[in-house]
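Consider the tokenized backbone below.
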């Protein structure tokens, strides 16, 4: 092969390859390229800091719906913040109980890559919100992203309990996609002062918001 780089003409000599070996190599290469092209990053991908994908399970999250998984989520988000780019904290299938706010900045909290919202089942990973009002479950700072997650609030034992926002918008460039909010007091709420321009809210299904589903203002940029 011959190519040009920085104005210099470069040439490399590769020894000849037997026809059968060449065919085998090309077939293997094509198969690998095809698989790599169609497979999305799954939420159960092992934590690999070099690739920018961390998994809350590797930081101690249980996903059993009873244990407090807040600390595990915080540790994963803190570790992600040390990465230069492509910051993703993956949340595998399960039910995760949160008891205090999570601050997210320039990081994607990723549940299920794609999926629907059946009426009687919840295929997406679920975040059980167990925070006292008016604390928000997620504080979305600059560049925060949430995708493929379900937030669960009031239960049969506490049908009238009030909560803070599921997501408090406190930064610009926030992206909220493919989410369900089940019985929130307040859903997606502006913090009242920050410029939250470049806001993207897409495919968010809100069930029975008792006070407000979405309140947005002061988007001093494209939204």
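A designed sequence for it:
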């Amino acid at each position: 092969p011959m190519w040009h780089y920085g104005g210099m003409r470069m040439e490399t000599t590769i020894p000849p390859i037997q026809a059968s070996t060449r065919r085998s190599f090309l077939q293997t290469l094509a198969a690998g390229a095809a698989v790599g092209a169609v497979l999305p990053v799954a939420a159960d991908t092992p934590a690999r800091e070099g690739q920018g994908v961390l998994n809350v399970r590797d930081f101690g999250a249980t996903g059993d719906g009873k244990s407090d998984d807040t600390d595990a989520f915080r540790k994963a988000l803190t570790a992600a913040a040390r990465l230069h780019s492509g910051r993703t904290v993956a949340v595998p299938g399960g039910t995760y109980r949160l008891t205090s706010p999570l601050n997210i900045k320039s990081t994607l909290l990723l549940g299920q890559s794609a999926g629907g919202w059946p009426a009687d089942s919840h295929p997406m990973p679920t975040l059980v919100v167990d925070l006292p009002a008016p604390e928000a479950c997620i504080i979305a700072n600059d560049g925060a992203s949430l995708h493929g997650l379900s937030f669960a609030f009031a239960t049969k034992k506490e049908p009238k309990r009030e909560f803070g926002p599921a997501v408090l918008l406190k930064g610009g460039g926030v992206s909220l996609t493919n989410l369900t909010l089940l019985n929130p007091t307040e859903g997606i709420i502006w913090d009242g002062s920050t410029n939250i321009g470049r806001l993207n809210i897409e495919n968010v299904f809100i069930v029975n918001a008792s006070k407000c589903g979405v309140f947005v203002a002061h988007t001093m940029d494209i939204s």
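The longest strand covers residues 145-152.
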